[in-house]
Design a protein that fits this description.
By secondary structure, the chain is an alpha+beta fold. The protein is built from 6 helices and 7 strands; from the N terminus they run E-H-H-E-E-E-H-E-H-E-H-E-H.
């Protein structure tokens, strides 16, 4: 993963389009068979770009050789808590530790912006995301042995620490 760079920008940046398009495809592929479910684009465009802008938010792209290969964002959940959103790695770049780098960078940025906690949700059909968050010290706010499909959204929380800032 040489020449990897983190770029703070906004969701309207043309370099964000591959990230957003991939998220829509992935979410529709995983959840598109659920009756009554909205198209993933509704969720991806639910929040205005300003929600992910400083001083209360951040929108991160990971760029390598001029191509967007991952990213993520956070927005204000409450005065002390950042809500992590859109953490994503392009399919052909997975299994290399890039998602961990994205989470660490977002946590460090949240700390720099004054947040003490992180909150996030992932879907019940994303076991790799559940594993990532558990491995990164997030506490599930649900029963891991329960009926995850019935829950649909799986919430996690974490108290942020200065070590996240140093790890990034």
């Amino acid at each position: 993963m040489s020449d990897l760079s983190f770029l703070y920008t906004n969701s309207l940046d043309p370099r964000a389009k591959p990230l957003i398009d991939d998220l829509i495809r992935e979410y529709n592929g995983r959840y598109g068979d659920i009756p009554g479910r909205e198209d993933a684009s509704v969720e991806l465009y639910r929040y205005p770009p300003a929600a992910f802008a400083a001083p209360t938010g951040a929108f991160l792209l990971v760029v390598q050789a001029g191509e967007t290969i991952g990213g993520g964002a956070f927005m204000r959940y409450d005065d002390a808590t950042a809500e992590m959103k859109r953490i994503w790695v392009r399919r052909d770049q997975r299994r290399q530790g890039l998602a961990r780098k994205i989470v660490a960078e977002l946590e460090a940025q949240a700390l720099r912006q004054g947040y003490q906690r992180a909150f996030l949700t992932t879907g019940f059909r994303q076991p790799e995301a559940v594993g990532l968050y558990l491995g990164f010290g997030y506490s599930p706010q649900f029963d891991l042995n329960g009926d995850l499909e019935a829950l649909r959204k799986l919430p996690f929380t974490k108290v942020l620490s200065e070590s996240a800032d140093q790890a990034a």
